[in-house]
């Protein structure tokens, strides 16, 4: 079967500088990563009708909220957008993964831009008309399709360009997804402040501005994508690693190896996502007055002023977790190039379980610096687990159809996005209902999450190489690889500067903002 025309048109010359491809991936992931930061809109949307205060309609159910134009929405109505994001992301990545590999990264990147930015625009219309169903449909469903396609497209492409440094490649891309909220949330906050007025909280205007800006970055990234030429191999490598054998999608998804890695991702994410979502109230409830220089004062006894001070510390804790989540995506994934993917997951899962044990309420868990260090490390390994898994799939099944295989694996993420928060929230609520003091609520939760990580470690231990019988030979290349092709790539410093500067500037600005929030923890 011949190559799809849209792939053939973007095949790069042997002289193409592969370091021009990662900025294209980052441009897409930084934009769609704003999905993590959508909570910045919830409180303003909670008084979009009343402006100065919410208009509450007693007895309003979810069905009523979907169509009301006169009552303000509740946060519980709005967070369904967040749920839709990641459920649709996993479903669309699984559904369109094979198509992404067939048509290539330019067509799929442009499709992702159209869905994500178009979804934001439809959602903005829903906010302007105050129709929640339209916000759900546009931002949650259409935007979620853009998330799924946009998530796997850059990762698959970078794995083809960096077969010798797969962990570094996936870390660069997925670091951008984690950094999207770090850049997008403060930007949206400032835009809403500038665009709000006596008749508007500025949300729909901000969503339109973000849609336009994201379209610019994502279309630029998609148009910049190239695929390696037949016979190309990375400079300095002694053998062809970009081509060769692969396991087809249909066979890969039926192997024990695929489902074991699926379980590893499910358990790693489930053990982190729920508790990270409760990071701010957790640290306030566990440490109480010790956070604000009032030892001996429990969270329940806080005055209004003390609640405000503790909330600022909670926000700083969230900022710290965000930074380590992003950094871990790059650092842990890059480390996997040195120690191997399986060894990396065994290390992370064991460390994660140990961190939950150390953080248990008691003598060790009572030390705030140790508690912060444990959860910073847990957050870094949560991000690292996302970043290294595509490289692990490429090791197990080859790179030719890794985007499609990765897409199916992301259903584990969608499942964990429901399982993890439900587990944490239900245990927490049950403990509180039983009258357990807030400072002691989290012990069983930490033990349960440590247990999930131990199960993940067992699954990782069971992963073995895929049998040779399942491997197929890649299609013959148009030209035999030569040493000249490997060394022909030209370092294009000017082009690198133009491609990298806007993205590093955005990440730097977001990092500075997040670091300034987290700095309160060391004062």
Q: What distinguishing features does this structure have?
A:
about 525 residues, mainly alpha, Growth Hormone, Chain: A, two-stranded antiparallel sheet, 20 helices, globular
The structural class is mainly alpha
Low-confidence stretches: 477-487
CATH hierarchy: architecture of the largest domain: Up-down Bundle
Estimated radius of gyration: 24 Å
CATH topology name of the largest domain = Growth Hormone, Chain: A
Figure out the total of helices.
Answer: 20
What fraction of residues sit in β-strands?
under 5%
Arithmetic mean of pLDDT: 86
The succession of helices and strands, N to C, reads HHHHHHHHHEHHHHHHHHHEHH
Shape: globular
Give the strand order, joined by hyphens, for the main sheet: 1-2
CATH superfamily of the largest domain: MFS general substrate transporter like domains
Helix content: 55-70%
What is the terminal separation in angstroms? 63 Å
Q: What's the main sheet like?
A: 2 strands, antiparallel
Number of strands: 2
Into how many domains do the coordinates divide? 2
